Amino acid sequence: MRIHRIAAAIAVAFPLGLAAQNAPAPVKELGVVTIVANRPTSLPTQIPTTTESISREQIGESINATDSEDALKYFPSLLVRKRYIGDYNHAILSSRASGTGNSARSAVYADGILLSNYLGNGVGGLSFPPRWGLVTPEEIERVDVMYGPFSAAYPGNSVGAVVDYVTRMPTQLEGHASIGYVWQPFKLYGTKDTFPAWQASTSIGSKAGDWTWWFNVNRTDSQGQPLTFARRFVSTTTSTPGTPVTGAVPERDPTNAPIYYIAAQTQYHTIQDHAKVKLAYDITPVLRAAYVFGAWQNTSTNRPTSYLSNAAGAPVTSGPININGANYAAVTGADLPLTDESLTHYMHGFSLKSHTQGTWDWEIAASLYDYAKDQKRQNALANTPPGAESGGPGTIADGGGTGWNTLAARGTWRPAGTKGPHIVDFGVQQDSWKLSYLTSAIPGNWRSDPGGAVASDVGGRTQLQSLWAQDSWRFAPDWKTVLGLRAEHWTAYNGHTQINSTVNTAWPQRSEDDLSPKAAISWQWRDDTVLKASLGRAVRYPTVAELYGATSTVNAQFINDPNLRPERSWTGELSGEKDVGVGLLRLTFFAEDTRDALYSQTTFDAQANRNVSRVSNVGRIATQGLELAFSGADVAIKGLDLSGGVTFAHSIIKENAGFVSVPGDTIGKRQPNIPRWRANALAAYHWTPTLSTSIGARYSSDQFRTLDNSDVNGFTYMGVSRYFVVDLRAQWKATKHLTASFGIDNVNNDKYWNFHPYPQRSYVAELKADF
């Protein structure tokens, strides 16, 4: 984000994929994407639209980065819903007009390889965040972000933002190792405990002749705080006599209805292992072949804790209960779910690329993401602790065979070389997605036995074939425009949904065709000021899970819709950027109009005692807003770096044939998970060449989670609250090879929510060795 200190901007670059590391330094110019260090971004560099970057050095000096998504913590208008270290199934990226329930409205890449999981959207019955675990903080060289769907090179999922992690490739033999420890004292409702996490990582790489290689391994062992809570509504008493209990915590739900919390659920102990190999071979001085292999495995256990005790002080984990003289429904496995998960995922990426910087350059690239193993075991409704700990009936959900692959051919044509007025980028691409989830009953031991009778069997495929081109045209000395067009053919097929014996449907094939034009223009008004405008159409097609992925488990139900319409958005922005000497100041007006927005809403079914998620189209959502951002170094005094942003967004539901409770109850309401105000600021001070400290602050105003905005109480389970969080970090380079750091996240111990509770005050210590 310290872009005014960047050595050079790319005037003519390689818009997609990896490029030569020894490219000649271009001339600085406002209005195009700028980069740090010697590895070009895989983002298109000829789009005069809003972009931000952060370097490896900035991350180390100022951010307590325990996962790769932490690098995005202080980008303007961005938020990752990370609940604990190693959060593998709920860490959704939010942007200006896309909330934390819409993971399919952003695009996350690592060196041009897709990490976003477009098998689904959000965290309904199945969860689909980006595969953050395939990038470790240690291997990050830089992170680049492009806001909005303004490049024809990307599908409509780029409507919110495009994030690209540029990872390290060495120029000589180098090695790195780090170890970190985090501890979080946590107090909420009936829980009072400390939840630790530790990480260890090591990397080695080298360049020898035409070969370049890199190897990285990482282990994370994390104890997360409780994320969900079993409850009883005060209004849902029964006539069945129950055991008198103590320990129930009186509270109010998001609608302010009085409730009791009776248990802490979803306390993950997760152990993750990551390994990655990157190889590159220079076939000729201008032709490079590259291969990436990543492996990620996760084993996690979830063990709930009952808050209830009987008259003898023993925990109550089953049967009808009596709270303060009123009888309530029996405690079951839905209140105390135990889960064991075992996941092994693999990623492959290959590219063959020319980098002549002459008239023509081209690239062929392919990637594969494979759910080699993806199993989740859970106890049955009637099987509660402590007996369920050692066995008994349950279910197993198996997602093995799920995954996606991409194949693309891209080219760049410079009719008059690098100094000509035109740079034309074009390509053809096919992305294919396969969902396969089989949930089976286990009559014997849920922790070890194979599945039996089918509880649900859902799956299907989607495919997106794309043809695109865009022309960057410098039609006058101070003017540049980019005109692009993307043509897409989308197909959904082989869809099937089976739920027990009640639903067993094979869905017919569907297809859609769309054109998405893009346009952007920049004017170098003055030597230190550039004005930019961008406009783009984006079509976000329904994911396989939204179409076919209905599921039903002990404590959650997800309802699909095979007839969902694609959402279609027009997004525009106007920006002014000014170099103020010590930094870059930017003001951006943005607007988005979305038809048939795809939304998944979660409500609590008190009768069934479980969460129910349903996908639907929302007729029209209109968003307008302003974003003010600054990034500078040596601000006011030498050694002080400042960056920050303030965003205002007015996002309103204008049309919707559907409703939550009564017709029309969503019209005029605010889009869920989009706050009116959000802001962040980060200050890093370099006391000496070896010692730096930083302080950061993050703020969000009130927001809603539901389409009808009925969740007026954000400070409770399933609520979405405002927050103000302060983070601290100190880094000391003890020697040339050894670096120590210490930090505190959420030093003010703000207790804030996004359906689940975010971490409370957490202490972070880290030791790194570089050779």
Characterize the structure shown.
This protein is an all-beta fold. The chain has a single domain (about 5-225, about 265-305, about 340-770), classed as TonB-dependent receptor, beta-barrel domain (Maltoporin, Chain A, Beta Barrel), CATH 2.40.170. Helices cover about 0% and strands about 55% of the residues. The strands form 7 sheets. It has a 26-stranded mixed β-sheet that branches. Strand 15 and strand 16 form a beta hairpin. It is globular. It starts with 7 loop residues before the first strand and ends with a strand. Mean pLDDT is about 90; it is low at about 1-30 and about 30-40.
| CATH homology superfamily | TonB-dependent receptor, beta-barrel domain
Relative helix content: under 10%
- Strands, count: 45
- Assigned CATH class: Mainly Beta
Radius of gyration computed on alpha carbons: 26 Å
- The N- and C-terminal alpha carbons lie at a distance of 27 Å
CATH structural fold name: Maltoporin, Chain A
Mean pLDDT: 91
Query: Based on CA inertia axes, which overall geometry fits?
Result: globular
Second-tier CATH architecture: Beta Barrel
Counting helices, strands and paired strands, the structural category is: mainly beta
Low-confidence stretches: 1-28, 30-38
Which key terms come to mind for this protein?
single chain, disordered N terminus, 771 residues, Maltoporin, Chain A
Overview in brief:
The protein is an all-beta fold and 771 residues long. The chain has a 26-stranded mixed beta sheet that branches.
Strand-helix topology:
Blueprint lengths: L7 E2 L24 E2 L15 E5 H7 L16 E2 L12 E2 L12 E4 L2 E2 L25 E8 L13 E7 L6 E15 L2 E18 L2 E13 L4 E6 L9 E3 L3 E4 L5 E8 L2 E17 L2 E16 L2 E2 L12 E5 L2 E6 L7 E16 L5 E20 L14 E5 L4 E11 L1 E4 L3 E21 L11 E23 L2 E21 L3 E4 L3 E17 L2 E12 L3 H5 L2 E2 L3 E4 L7 E13 L3 E23 L4 E23 L7 E16 L21 E12 L2 E10 L22 E11 L4 E8 L7 E2 L1 E2 L4 E9 L1
Parallel strand pairs: 6-9, 14-20, 34-37
Antiparallel strand pairs: 1-2, 3-8, 4-5, 6-7, 8-9, 10-11, 10-45, 11-12, 12-17, 13-16, 15-16, 16-19, 17-18, 18-22, 20-21, 22-23, 23-24, 23-25, 24-27, 25-27, 27-28, 28-29, 29-30, 29-31, 31-32, 32-35, 33-34, 35-36, 36-37, 37-38, 38-39, 39-40, 40-41, 41-42, 42-45, 43-44
